[in-house]
Amino acid sequence: MAFSKEHKTKLIAQYTEWVKQSQGMVALSYNKMSMKEIDTLRSKVRDAGGELHVVKNTLMKLALEEMGVSKTDVFEGVSLVGFAFHDAPALAKVINDSTAKSEVFAVKGGYLGNEMLNASQVKALADLPPLPVMRAILLGTILAPATKLVRTIAEPARGLAAVIKAYSDTGAAAAA
Prior knowledge:
Layout: H1 5-21, E1 24-29, H2 35-47, E2 50-55, H3 57-66, E3 79-84, H4 88-101, E4 106-112, E5 115-117, H5 119-126, H6 131-175
Antiparallel strand pairs: 1-3, 1-4, 2-3, 4-5
Helix pairs in contact: 1-3, 4-5
């Protein structure tokens, strides 16, 4: 079925909007997927804060070029694209877990911002810890020097208090 120029323009506008809103994208080939498998993957992606859409390659390339992304060689064959609207590593993790369990589809590559990722880089993105864990690690790294400084400043006073307490305990024991 051929699309009219008006319909193609609407699709390009929709793809451009999805690209603008997303932090990252992952492209998959879905040659052997059934609709049930696609729907299952879509629900998992939705739970991760993203969306999964079947796209027309030529129109997606035009939308990406409109956004200033020049490398669009990921879009060959049939493409299923996951858009990460909240957390790109979470989307990559869901897709990577699904591809590891099944050989029905394969990751072709993706984009993080305007940078193209190959399949191994998408896997590396999936291996990142979730956002709350990353924030906790960063906060711990920032607070570690301050905690160490406070401990170092308080140590002489704590040591002096321990000596005085030990001396008073021995004095009280001698008096008794």
